[in-house]
Amino acid sequence: MTPLDWALEWHSLGYSPIPTRGKAPLIKWKEKYGFHLHRPTEQQVRELFEGMACNIGILTGKLHGVVVVDADSESAVEYVRLTCQQTPMRIRSRRGMHFWYRHPGFPVTSHRGLDEPPVDIKGDGGICTGLGSRHQSGFIYQLDEDAEMVSIRDLPIYLKSWFPEKPILPPKKVDIKGDRLERAARYLRAIPPAGQGARNTTAFRAAVNMTHDFGIPPDEAEALLNEWNMMQDPPLPQTDIRTIVLSSVRSGKHPLGSKL
Fold first, then answer.
1. How far is residue 209's CA from residue 245's CA, in Å, rounded to a whole number?
2. 189, 204, 218, 241 from 213: Cα distances, Å
3. pLDDT (tens digit per residue) in 68-101
4. How far from 159 is each of 5, 31, 71, 106, 151, CA to CA, in Å?
5. Which of 82, 190, 209, 260 is most buried, judging by how many CB atoms fall within 10 Å of its CB?
6. From the CB of residue 164, how many other CB atoms can be counted at a distance below 10 Å?
């Protein structure tokens, strides 16, 4: 089956497919197409996927009717099997499994359900890789044993009690003093909001600029980046920001303090 065939199959079952490369959208699905306001039509799906060599990204959230529990390891898969209601639609990913559920009708933000074992919740504003896709490692996404591709109306309803959302704490405020912090803050404010598939990459590049190019200590860089993160839709988990900042300290192509 071609990507177009897969996309049409997804659409016929009530889902909202968009073309992706890896996990990143190949279209401006909000800004240009308005798929945060309405589902893609069959004609739009045909136009978007015709002749494309791409992966299949499925939009998640209230508008699109689905929530996906992304278990990112075998231990996480076992945890979800024991914790959540069984669903007929389970798709094997490279490291774990995607469990598909019907959206409950009230807000379910995309967030980290558990740090260990690693479980992500793809809810409002999210994108999940679907059947018809191939990971860059060569792994082909496939149905789990005895699973099947079903319509949204045949999915069990997601319950928020399975993975309560962690409250988003107000970011730590930085007392911006001195030219270095002022310039770094202005630099961050000039970075446009990143889309769902580009938040991590954009945050990492920004963190490298903070810790390496501006030479800002990690704790102050984390606080600055947290303020930028609050402008994203949805924001990354705060634990991810901390990890990104710590990783950025060991990166950077330019000399330390090159932006000063």
1. 10
2. 16, 13, 12, 18
3. 999 999 999 999 999 999 999 999 999 999 999 9
4. 32, 30, 16, 10, 19
5. 209
6. 9
In whole angstroms, what is the distance from residue 30 CA to residue 37 CA?
8
Cβ burial 65-75 (10 Å sphere, 16+ → b, else e): bbbbbbbbeee
DSSP string covering 1-15, please? --HHHHHHHHHHTT-
CATH label, 3-162, candidates 3.30.2250, 1.20.1070, 1.10.10, 2.60.40: 3.30.2250
Contact 18, 40 (CB under 8 A): yes
Both tokens assigned to 174: 């930085």
Strands 90-92 and 55-59: unpaired
Instruction: Pinpoint the residues of the chain covered by CATH 3.30.2250.
Output: 3-162
Whether 73 and 48 have beta carbons less than 8 Å apart is answered as no
Q: HSE, CB side, 13 Å, CA atoms: give it for residue 69.
A: 33
